[in-house]
Design brief:
36% helix, single chain, 6-stranded parallel sheet, 15% strand, 3-stranded antiparallel sheet, 2 domains, CoA-Trfase_fam_III, Rossmann fold
């Protein structure tokens, strides 16, 4: 097995659902030993988010569902009651050998258990402690609960997503995946890596990291947010139209649709030739990209009419030869059969006790010297409890059995 970038880092992961687990999964993919702490019997909230579930040998659904599995590969699961004094004591013992603690409880919740940053810093001064909340550790909304869909509205994402005003079906729209959670998870992993570098390579100390979904959502709006900050103009929904080079949009064909981005004047000239309408190069409405952006609706309608005259494959072939950035609108079955996705190995095998041929998504990170080559299935609830307590804390079988009898594990 190849060495991995983070193979000497240990993470105690108290996060649940999506944002925190997505961040810790990124660390686990890179080789960190991520010990996921779940509630006995109940487990991570994501385990009850519904179908589809893996089936057992008799075909019955289990608690191993796709949502949970999407963000928990390469981890170890420990079922531990942190509401109990003994459970809290075991957490503090585990922290002594950890580099990172992650949690996404409500602001102040873990302080009553003695598992807040200051308490665990006293146990391990080098600990990096990352808290993930909806609104951050301070401010008027700090105690307010929230989920991804709420933040998609609050951060402004829905205001610039969906069918434009005046068109059929107009109105704000949620992005399909829980994208604010995923942005947050990426920021979580990035912040932890920076804190580890500060501590281990720059002579620093452990520290506290405060990550909020609202902050991450606003940050992810990037150029949309900067348009407002620069001009004072509030960006509007544009459907599938782009915000820069035009024409950029989804265009209907005779048997489906394609997505095209004509990012500059050179690509626009090539596009006009590729679709057999060289006269559009000299149309004063479209002569430069500045003019095309001003007349975005007009140019979109012109190319809508052109692309409707032939099939997806016909146009993608023409556009590909001309070097125009373009592609099909794939569903997920088509994505995993897409030649480039197959070549890049975007689905990988991670044998699971209930499904030996379980496939999971490959990490998008590719390292030349420390490649990610092996994937372990998302753990079943408490799958590693006894091993972790024995190996990391030195508890014998009798002590572990007493913990089980007392409902601690």
């Amino acid at each position: 097995m190849a060495r991995l970038p983070l193979e000497k880092i240990r993470v105690l992961d108290l996060t649940r659902v999506l944002a925190g687990p997505f961040g810790s999964q990124a660390l686990a993919d890179m080789g960190a030993d991520v010990i996921k702490v779940e509630r006995p019997v109940v487990g991570d909230d994501a385990r009850i988010f519904g179908e589809p579930y893996l089936r057992d040998a008799e075909g019955n659904p289990t608690r191993e569902n796709a949502f949970y599995m999407s963000v928990n590969r390469n981890k170890r699961s420990v079922a531990l009651n942190i509401a109990s004094a003994r459970g809290q004591e075991l957490i503090r013992e585990l922290v002594k050998s950890c580099d990172v603690v992650m949690e996404n409880y409500k602001v102040g919740d873990l302080k009553r258990y003695g598992l807040d940053y200051e308490s665990l810093k006293a146990v391990n001064p080098r600990i990096i402690y990352c808290s993930v909340t909806g609104y951050g550790q301070d401010g008027p909304l700090a105690s307010k609960p929230g989920y991804d869909a709420v933040f998609q509205g609050e951060c402004g994402l829905m205001s610039v997503t969906g069918v434009p005003e005046g068109k059929p079906g107009a109105g704000p729209m949620k992005v399909g995946p829980s994208i604010i959670d995923l942005f947050t998870g990426l920021n979580v992993a990035n912040a932890i890596l920076a804190a580890l570098y500060h501590r281990d390579a720059a002579g620093g100390e452990g520290q506290y990291i405060d990550i909020a979904l609202l902050d991450c959502g606003v940050s992810a709006l990037s150029h949309y947010a900067q348009i407002y900050l620069t001009s004072g103009e509030v960006p509007v929904r544009r459907g599938t139209q782009g915000n820069g080079g035009m024409p950029t949009s989804m265009f209907p064909c005779s048997d489906g649709a394609i997505m095209i981005t004509s990012g500059n004047d050179k690509q626009y000239i090539a596009l006009c030739d590729a679709v057999g309408h060289p006269e559009l190069k000299d149309d004063p409405r479209f002569y430069t990209n500045v003019e095309r952006v001003k007349n975005r609706d007009e140019i979109t309608e012109v190319f809508n009419a052109i692309f409707r005259t032939n099939s997806v494959d016909y146009w993608l072939d023409k556009l590909g030869v001309a070097g125009i950035p373009s592609g099909p609108i794939n569903d997920l079955e088509q994505v995993f059969a897409y030649p480039q996705a197959v070549h890049r190995g975007l689905r990988v095998r991670a044998p699971h006790p209930l499904k030996p041929d379980l496939d999971v998504i490959r990490s998008p990170l590719n390292f030349s010297e420390t490649p990610i080559t092996d994937y372990r299935a998302p753990p079943m609830l408490g799958e590693h409890t006894r091993d972790v307590l024995a190996q990391e804390l030195g508890l014998d079988a009798a002590a572990i059995e007493r913990l089980a009898e007392d409902g601690i594990i």
